[in-house]
Amino acid sequence: MSPSPPVVSRAERIGRRLVLAVFGAAVAGFTLHNTVRIIDQVFFVPAPEAKTSCRDGVLQLVTGIRQARRAAAAEEQGERASMATYRSTLEPIWAVRASLDRACYGDPEGLRALTDVDRLRYAEEHAVRSDAVDLARLRRRVHTLEKEFGGAPPP
Asked: What pLDDT is recorded for position 42?
């Protein structure tokens, strides 16, 4: 014969349930709190405010795109390096992009210009990507030729 299960009093059952409920509430509360914090940090990042007018901000973005394009064009390590250079050069200037929507709110021409600048940014990024593949290969070949012909090493 098997031994009979131990007899558990009503108070012990209530105590166990209460401990499980408190533990479950603590774990659920901790999980919920951390989930809310992660979602807040990922999806609701405050954009830095633009300290310029709409039109000046648009001009700064255009200047930033040109600087990023030149920096990426000087990169010799291939597509990934060119893209990384383009994005890292553009990032500090582009950080105020979201706040320019608010700055350009009452200026329809400024909003159109901002849309055009957005399109230019992605078109330039595409151009950097496609140019980098061919250009890096060509640069490496020319550097090899320079060495073979006894030319000065590239800067």
From this structure: 83
